């Protein structure tokens, strides 16, 4: 299956470079480009991409606002792409808010070409692009600085089984599926099943949102280690 991609960045050279690199892949098709968030939303709504590469800081409409519009569309708009945020900073306030809004991860603009290609494929497959070390650092740093959300997420934890709660906690501590399987002495496929049930019960889109939810629910706290 070909992965349809839209690139949204205010630097023409960045768009051209990313487009050339991705279009050279047999399984990736760049179906649109835009120089700002507002046009990015328009292009995405008309081309229905699988993945949108979204720069964080842009004129007219920034990447965070555009990501929110794509991930929480108005009534009547059915298509919701995966959004991968592009940033020049590995810790960025906008990135955290984008993950909270449902973005599937982030990638540094100066990452090696192979990382960009792999990131598009990972996000298109439905996975979140958050390395364990980045998960711990990014989420913990920002959760410490933020007031509690208006709705108490801890109440939603009651719908999880004890095993599902354990799995969610280990995700939030930055463990991979393989590491969770070893920690709980389970098959990796069983871990994947538990993760799917956790996401469904909590109405979360992917692993990135699960990490944020676990911190905001108080299941884990900044500084905890696995």
Give a structural overview:
The chain is an alpha/beta fold. Helix content is 48%, strand content 12%. Strands 2-1-3-4-5 form a five-stranded parallel β-sheet, with helices on both faces. Strand 4, helix 4 and strand 5 form a beta-alpha-beta unit. The radius of gyration is 17 Å and the shape is globular.
The main β sheet shows up as: 5 strands, parallel
| Mass-distribution shape | globular
Rg computed from alpha carbons, rounded to a whole number of angstroms: 17 Å
SSE order, one letter for each helix or strand: EHEHEHEHEHHHHHH
Low-confidence segments, given as residue ranges, are none
Distance between the termini: 37 Å
Structural class: alpha/beta
Helical element count?
10
Number of strands: 5
Strand order in the sheet with the most strands? 2-1-3-4-5
* Beta-strand fraction estimate: 5-15%
In round numbers, the mean pLDDT is 84
Outline:
With 226 residues, this protein is an alpha/beta fold. The chain contains ten helices and five strands, in the order βαβαβαβαβαααααα. The protein has helices at 12-23, 37-47, 63-71, 93-101, 113-124, 132-143, 162-172, 177-184, 188-202, 207-216, and strands at residues 3-8, 28-34, 51-55, 82-87, 105-108.
Relevant terms:
226 residues, 10 helices, globular, alpha/beta, 48% helix
């Amino acid at each position: 299956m070909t992965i349809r991609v839209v690139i949204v960045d205010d630097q023409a050279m960045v768009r051209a470079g990313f487009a050339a690199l991705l279009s050279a892949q047999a399984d990736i098709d760049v179906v649109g480009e835009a120089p700002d968030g507002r046009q990015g939303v328009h292009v995405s709504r008309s081309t229905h991409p699988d993945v949108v590469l979204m720069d964080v800081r842009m004129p007219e409409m920034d990447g965070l606002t555009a990501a929110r519009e794509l991930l929480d569309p108005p009534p009547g708009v059915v298509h919701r792409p995966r959004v991968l945020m592009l940033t020049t900073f590995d810790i960025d306030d906008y990135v955290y808010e984008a993950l909270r809004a449902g973005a599937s991860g982030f990638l540094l603009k100066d990452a090696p070409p192979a990382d960009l290609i792999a990131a598009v494929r990972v996000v298109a497959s439905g996975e979140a692009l958050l390395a364990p070390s980045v998960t711990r650092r990014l989420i913990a740093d920002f959760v410490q600085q933020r007031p509690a959300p208006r709705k108490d997420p801890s109440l939603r934890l009651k719908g999880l089984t004890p095993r599902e709660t354990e799995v969610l906690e280990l995700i939030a501590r930055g463990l991979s599926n393989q590491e969770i399987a070893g920690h709980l002495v389970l098959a990796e496929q069983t871990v994947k099943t538990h993760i799917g049930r956790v996401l469904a019960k909590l109405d979360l889109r992917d692993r990135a949102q699960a990490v944020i939810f676990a911190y905001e629910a108080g299941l884990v706290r900044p500084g905890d280690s696995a």
